[in-house]
Amino acid sequence: MTTSTQPPAPEVKRLDARGIGLLLVLSGALFLEGADIAMLAVALPSIGAEFDLSAGGLQWVMSAYVLGYGGFLLLGGRAADLLGRRRMFLLSLAVFVVFSGIGGLATESWMLVVARFVTGVAAAFMTPAGLSIITTTYAEGAARQKALLVYGAAGAAGFSLGLVMGGFLTLADWRWVFFAPVIMSSAILAAAVRLIPVDPVAARRRVRELDLAGAAALATGLLLFVHTLERASHSPLLTTVATGLAAAAALAGFVAIERRTAEPLVRLGILRTGTVVRINAVGLLFMGAFFSFQFVVVLYLQELRGWSTLETSLTLVIMAIDGILAPTITPWLVTRFGHAAVLAAGVGAQLLAFALFLPMTADWSYVAMLPSLVAMGIAFTLAYGTLAIGATDGVEESEHGLAGGLLYTSFQIGGALGLALVSAVLVAVSDGGTYTLEDYRAALLVPLGAAVVAVGISLVHALVRPGSSGVAG
Asked: Is the pTM above the cut of 0.85?
């Protein structure tokens, strides 16, 4: 173990030129991560047509990334804390560039799935490193809170604007959905090398001191769990039980490893913090509901309604209002009411969005869809950034990478579960042919139910921490 002689990077006390430049780089990376998922969602029908994939097969093209991301986020967060946040951010962004390009060159569906999985693993190291760079670089108080809200707004805008970007790119060729992130991430990487300060890690650890066994057990358990859910409706009962038990054994093994290792991937004591548990539960449900809602709506518009990729993208672009509202309105709301109350309002807006879309018809106009899509944009405006604030609320600075990893793990596991459940529902209620309007309505009950539970948890959180500003120390 060696001690770093690198002096601490000066703390950013206000958003001056240096602070804004760094924030743009970190926010750009999070925007790219969100846009990457959203662009692929719009391109799914085109990918399915080329590789002759069913809805279940398309779900795995999406879930491969989500599982790689969710399965290794905790390892990524811990690596940022132990090995250096700048190092992890730059290295993982470089891997993201390479495997995004490989995905665009895929000639078989399995190649695409593998490339998406590795890209997800890269994002798993990049995202918590970026969040912890913000929480350890920007001074506690107004500067940090503003930076976190802008950072969260960038991520939310990526999900929304990515739908439009994906629509235009797919018009040329769905492969550009993979090549465009290569261009964007390469530019961000070049700027990051210059702008991200060297972070002194007091005790530089070796890679072998990371909890790789715990990471492997967690990733295996999550993969088997999602596979069990997705296949449950069309697999023999014995197979479902076997994979479910294997998933439970792997996750139990993960807990056992964490209890006995000297440097656990997750210090289990952090899960005894009520704020951490509630924030991660809401994050899991919020993103699981959004992923499943987006999946159903894209299929409804393109498969049932026959709308083009571009028409679908332009229909959903209104959700990108969060990119404008989040950095302007949300900071004032958080200052006035606290992050817990604003989060509860955001989750409530998501529930409203799903309820408004449920009465959809086979000839619904854009105007009829608009209230639901606007409500979804408002939900991201209020919830995404406040979840990022709440993730490190009350957590020691030395564990901010872990806290960020927990939050984004919740996001991605929620997304994987949401996709698996909604796919399973579609398979269960359909007759094996083209999905009907009633099939899509049944599938929408998945995000609706998740949002109901999220509202309940967020209201409890708001009552427990009514005056919390969300500024963590």
From this structure: no
